[in-house]
Design goal:
Strand content: 15-25%
Number of strands: 13
Shape: globular
Length: about 350
């Protein structure tokens, strides 16, 4: 039997800002872009959430709903630093850690429990260590599978702790709204409501043929999660299909020199991520969003695998210049690399391609 923890730091970005600046503690903090420049909320403190502020909300709307809120520009280097400290604590407990983002991860603590420790005690000790060593609160859910643990961690936020004992999975899931289940988004939940499926318990009682009609290839996975029986393991090595970086501008850009600088910074970020993950790719993609919100992607495949910043910069720049027509301005740019292959040692000299048919919209 497995024992899985889902750990989720509470309002992470805002919590770090309140930790570093005691004057912000107890106040509604909204981390994100400026309301004057189409910024969005990255994270809101719980004091701001009382007013309906939530992540991905336009900052201008957040300020309207919570005029007393304090807008703080994000400091991602600091958030990554704090995330590493928390992940180190997780790794000291178990080597089986699957980070999902800077602020959440799965931990397989089966080996720890098999030494005689109770899952509840492990979770309490983990919360204590995170609090004492970083000053942050973490909400924890514990279950025999990842989906149950993830749902449990969200139920008593902030600073929550919910343990679902082995054998209690169906009773725990049964009364919860069907939208709580991993893999059931808002649109799918609406369709299920029309079928009379309101709770996870309702979903669990449906016959196999019904699952096949509603979910196709996902049918067995959704059914297993509804029953609290999914066997998805904690994956310690995540193999990304792509690595990218993007930025939205406060004002639309059209000047070639400005755009070239942005392409350089984004390409450097992608190259750095490739180097840290020890992977190389062949397909360079540029994402473009125009002033009228039209979004385009342009991509090409290089002759060899690379993580070279210079190669990514030049390739991305050539892709962008093909779209720089008179009167066109950009509100977002992104650079990505995919098509990963063998991590060959040593530098590689690349012949840059001629751009032609390998283009997506």
């Amino acid at each position: 039997m497995r024992h899985i923890i889902h750990a989720d730091l509470d309002a992470f970005y805002a919590a770090v800002e309140q930790l570093d600046n005691p004057q912000l503690r107890g106040l509604p903090v909204m981390v994100g872009g400026s309301p004057q420049s189409r910024g969005v909320v990255a994270t809101a403190s719980y004091e701001a959430r009382v007013f309906g502020v939530h992540s991905a909300m336009p900052m201008v709307t957040a300020v309207r709903q919570c005029p007393q809120g304090i807008v703080v520009r994000p400091r991602f280097d600091r958030y990554r630093e704090m995330s590493r400290k928390v992940m180190d604590i997780f790794q000291q407990l178990t080597a089986l850690v699957e980070p999902l983002s800077l602020d959440e991860a799965y931990l397989d603590i089966t080996g720890v429990v098999e030494t005689g420790r109770l899952p509840l005690g492990v979770a309490i000790d983990l919360k204590r260590r995170v609090r004492e060593e970083t000053g942050l609160n973490v909400s924890i859910g514990v279950g025999t599978c990842k989906s149950v643990a993830k749902i449990a961690s969200d139920l008593e936020k902030p600073d929550g702790l919910v343990v679902v004992a082995p054998g209690d999975e169906r009773d725990f899931l049964e009364p919860l709204p069907v939208g709580k289940l991993w893999g059931i988004g808002p649109k799918t939940a609406e369709r299920l409501h029309r079928d009379g499926v309101e709770t996870i318990g309702d979903l669990a009682t449906q016959p196999d043929e019904w699952y096949a009609r509603r979910f196709g290839k996902r049918a067995q996975g959704i059914r297993a999660k509804a029953l609290g029986q999914d066997d998805d393991p904690v994956k310690t090595e995540r193999n990304p299909k792509s690595i990218s970086a993007e930025t939205t501008f406060a004002e639309d850009l059209s000047d070639p020199e400005d755009l070239r600088q942005v392409i350089g910074k984004l390409s450097a970020s992608v190259s750095g991520q490739l180097t840290r993950k020890e992977v190389r790719g062949r397909t360079v993609t540029v994402k473009l969003r125009l002033a009228d919100f039209t979004t385009l992607t342009r991509q090409t495949t290089l002759p060899d695998y690379t993580n070279s910043e210079a190669a990514i910069v030049e390739t991305a720049w050539q892709l962008l210049t093909g779209e720089m027509t008179a009167g066109r301005a950009f509100r977002l740019l992104g650079v990505g690399m995919s098509g990963f292959g063998e991590n060959l040692p040593g530098p590689q000299q690349l012949a840059l391609p001629l751009f032609g048919p390998s283009i997506d919209d």
